[in-house]
Design a protein that fits this description.
GO molecular function: phosphorelay response regulator activity; transcription cis-regulatory region binding
CATH topology of the largest domain: Rossmann fold
Radius of gyration: 26 Å
InterPro entries: CheY-like_superfamily, PAS, PAS-like_dom_sf, PAS_fold, Sig_transdc_resp-reg_receiver, WalR-like
Strand content: 25-35%
Largest sheet: 7 strands, antiparallel
Pfam families: PAS (PF00989), Response_reg (PF00072)
Number of helices: 9
Shape: elongated
GO cellular component, one term: cytosol
Distance between the termini: 59 Å
Protein name: Putative Response regulator
Length: about 250
């Protein structure tokens, strides 16, 4: 496995050099040691480190938190903050940048190693999850079946192109709307409204659908499509409900 690349940002020369020595002893590749936020941003762009050890308190116009925020917005590089005692306001600013960990000065080599191993593991898991998410999104977008997802409040969170075509709603316009507004369902014979299968799933926690019978989907522009559909709960990595996915398709009369 390639050595993880680490950038050290600390304006205390003795401390920074000690961290460099510890990292090398632990088998990490130190791509740079800098003392200011501006230098940190520059080297993060040049070397693309896997992780940055960032002191919160830095001299100059850009402290460690501002530097971390800039680096994350440009390059997405994760950060472990190095800090002595800080006031609550500073810590709240730091939390907003979602650091992978904090190391309280002074720390020993075992603390540094544990923080790095955990942070790099979390980063690898996050990247794998992002890759899977992009793959799944590509699959959904290319499906011929229409797909709509909603959150636990029944608000639309995604439509694929097939769903946009059948509902008449562009995704940007539909996001946050109640699913009953985006997917208006009627009984074919009587024209009576049909409860949304998504809402049934949210209430009962079990898969639902239109029972295999076709119903009318009235699009935003008033066109009617005969469809059949199914709906199932979306669960997060812990198995907790996080929304509903509806899959539907047009059927012949």
């Amino acid at each position: 496995m390639a050595q993880a690349k680490i950038l050290i940002v600390d304006d205390e020369v003795v401390v920074a050099e000690d961290i460099r020595r510890q990292l090398r002893a632990l088998g990490y590749l130190v791509v740079g040691v800098v003392a200011s936020g501006d230098e940190a941003v520059r080297l993060a762009g040049e070397h693309q480190p896997d992780l940055i050890l960032m002191d919160i308190k830095l001299k100059g116009s850009m402290d460690g938190i501002d530097a971390a925020r800039t680096i994350q917005s440009r390059y997405g590089t994760p950060v472990i903050y190095l800090t002595a005692f800080s006031d609550e306001e500073t810590l709240e600013r730091a939390r907003e940048t979602l650091p992978l960990a904090y190391l309280i000065k002074p720390f020993v080599s075992s603390d540094l190693r544990a923080a790095l191993e955990l942070a790099l593991f979390r980063q690898r898991v996050s990247r794998i999850s992002e890759q899977r998410g992009r793959w799944l999104e590509a699959v959904v977008l290319s499906m011929e079946d229409a797909v709509v997802t909603v959150d636990q409040q029944g608000r639309v969170t995604m439509l694929n192109p097939a769903a946009e075509g059948l509902t008449g709603w562009a995704q940007p316009d539909a996001l946050g709307k109640a699913v009953q507004e985006v997917m208006v369902l009627l009984e074919p014979e009587s024209g009576r409204p049909v409860p949304s299968p998504a809402i049934q799933v949210l209430r009962k926690g079990t898969p639902a659908g239109l029972g295999g019978r076709p119903f009318l989907l009235v699009s935003r522009n008033g066109h009617e499509h005969r469809i059949t559909d199914s709906a199932a709960m979306i669960r997060d990595e812990r198995g907790n409900p996080s929304g509903v996915v509806l899959v539907f398709r047009p059927v012949s009369a």
